[in-house]
């Protein structure tokens, strides 16, 4: 890595398209008139990372934590300056993962709350996996009230997420289903809606509401801002 370059590392595979979508968002949010003005990005797609929701239920997330740490250690050898984990549920174990590696990880949950403060949204709807909902990682702010789907609505959210992961879905139908869930949360008082699963983030551009907050987009923007404002010499971890 040349002196002054900044290299972003992405732990991909949570789910299959999340890392790809994040790379695209990084490119789209980088002001670069030439190829050479873009940011260096290394993505390690690891489809062997255990299902985060299942792991949280069975072993409190120990298995997926180890798999993510192993993935970061592979990225570490490429000289990356920061790590992005495009999976909201994985951030339930953020502290444990960060303690295990020397490279700073940009926190997708923190990025989301910074955006919510700017919107002055005090009551926020959350669409996410069961693991994210049950962990209450989005409930840690005293200034924001989180509204979650009913049990029946949550079953629909889960079905949508795993349909997207499987690759067997109709884009218009999925977008319409997410819009319907957003309308229900809005009717119950939500001033903004968090797409708290990176599978749902894939549909952010297709949704009708203008009060949707997409953590994956915010993660990309924070990474770009960090890369543009931080000057690094080559790092040998």
Order of helices and strands: EHEHHEHEHEHEHHEHEH
- What's the helix count? 10
Shape: globular
User: The biggest beta sheet, please?
Assistant: 4 strands, parallel
Question: Which percent bin holds the helix content?
Answer: 40-55%
What is the total domain count? 2
CATH architecture of the largest domain: 3-Layer(aba) Sandwich
Number of strands: 8
Task: Give a description of the structure.
- Helix content is 47%, strand content 14%.
- The chain is an alpha/beta fold.
- It folds into two domains: 7-107 and 217-233, Rossmann fold, CATH 3.40.50.1860; 109-214, Rossmann fold, CATH 3.40.50.1860.
- The strands form two sheets. It has a four-stranded parallel β-sheet with strand order 2-1-3-4, sandwiched between helices. It has a four-stranded parallel β-sheet with strand order 6-5-7-8, sandwiched between helices.
- Mean pLDDT is 93; it is low at 231-237.
């Amino acid at each position: 890595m040349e002196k002054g370059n900044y290299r972003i590392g992405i732990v991909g595979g949570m789910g299959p398209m999340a890392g790809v979508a994040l790379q695209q968002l990084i490119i789209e949010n980088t002001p670069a008139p030439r190829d050479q003005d873009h940011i260096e990005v290394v993505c390690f797609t690891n489809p062997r990372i255990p299902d985060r929701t299942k792991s949280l239920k069975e072993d409190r997330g120990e298995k997926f934590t180890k798999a993510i740490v192993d993935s970061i250690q592979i990225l570490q050898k490429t000289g990356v300056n920061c790590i992005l984990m495009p999976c909201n549920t994985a951030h339930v174990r953020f502290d444990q993962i960060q303690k295990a590696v020397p490279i700073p990880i940009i926190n997708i949950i923190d990025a989301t709350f910074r955006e919510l403060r700017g919107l002055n949204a005090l009551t926020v709807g959350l669409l996410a996996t069961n693991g994210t909902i049950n962990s209450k990682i989005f409930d840690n702010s005293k200034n924001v009230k989180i509204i979650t789907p009913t049990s029946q609505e949550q079953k629909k959210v889960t079905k949508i997420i795993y349909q997207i992961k499987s690759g067997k879905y109709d884009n218009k139908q999925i977008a319409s289903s997410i819009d319907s869930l957003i309308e229900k949360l809005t009717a119950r008082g939500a001033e903004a809606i968090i797409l708290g699963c990176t599978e749902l983030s894939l549909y952010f551009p297709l949704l009708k509401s203008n009060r949707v907050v997409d953590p994956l987009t915010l993660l990309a923007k924070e990474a770009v801002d960090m890369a543009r404002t931080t000057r690094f010499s080559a790092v040998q971890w």
